[in-house]
From TrEMBL:
TM annotation in the entry: none
Name of this chain's protein: Iron-containing alcohol dehydrogenase
Alphabetized UniProt keyword annotations: Oxidoreductase
CDD domains: NADPH_BDH
Fe-containing alcohol dehydrogenase-like C-terminal domain mapped to chain residues: 187-377
Lineage: Bacteria, Fusobacteriati, Fusobacteriota, Fusobacteriia, Fusobacteriales
Organism: Psychrilyobacter piezotolerans
Amino acid sequence: MDLKWFRVPKDIVFGEGTLKYLSAIEGKKAVLVTGGNSMKRFGFLNQAREELEKAGMEVMIIDGVEPNPSVNTVVDGGRKMAEFNPDWIIAIGGGSALDAAKIMWVYYENPETKFEDLVAGKFPTLRKKAKFIAIPSTSGTASEITAFSVITDTVNKIKYPLVSYEITPDIAILDPVIPSKTPAHITANTGMDVMTHAIESYTSTAATCYTKPLSMESIKMVFESLTSAYSDGDDIKAREDMHNASTLSGMAFTSASLGIVHSMAHKIGGELGITHGLANAVLLPYVIEYNRKSTDGFDEIEKTLGVDDIVTTVKELNQRVGIPLSLKEIDEVEVSEENFKNVLERMSINAFNDPCTLTNPRNTSAEDIKEIFLAAYYGTTAKNI
């Protein structure tokens, strides 16, 4: 029997000021997991602690999660949690903090877990010791709503998308005040991550009547609100729309999965250190060109948005929010031709073997992916691949 699923957190709490919801949960101990200093600097980490203390909880903080969380980070986090024994794990921050906290949760409850089993989709049962709350600080990864976590094997330089409904958060808290402090370039990168989630989940071979309306609504909201959120961080309406669009796309792709934009972004991020959302943004129009002959989905998106060419529309949106049109133009890290060529073959094979490739609308190959990478690097076209 071909069973299909649509699963999201039990509770999604959204709107301005909803961080206060933490004061209403019941428990004895809570761990707050976060990344760098931004949640601390803007007072959100302290506010979260205070709300939990109002609920009568003892609170421990695990901070310093790196931008591409490693296997060592999540194993060590699980060990620290085991020493504290919390009944709530609360991740607050960007996608990296949320992703890391999910796998720390796995190692807290099941310290004998082998990372290789997680890569293979073999997850232990959770919620024997703790439940999980996710509070995103960026409008992009949708980790607050999904069964996904991306963890980096720093030895082999590979980002692994780990997938299990066990790590879907129990509660997602979407307070748009938190991402209002996000710098413009991060707003751009994470916002285009949302667009990529939405477009890829809409055209996925696993898309259903449950997921496609969510994907399309997210596409519309990003198209209408990203530029405003980027140019005016205090535009709380645009911020709220982007935050909700991120979650809507996450609700779609956690059930429908994605495509080779993500397969390729995972691998080029692991090899060259390009930020995930930025890699998605640059790769997206080239993959659309490649996939177009195998799906009517892009025609439907164009009709809904009232545009003639979705490739041009995506490129123009990238330009409006300061994102380059080719990989060689990226300046956040050095993407020299020599370095790119040195990893191209391995990167293409690994991208082909990524789980997201399975639901790409067009059957592909490592050789085709290599050609798409080349088109995206030099800024040419992928129409003829």
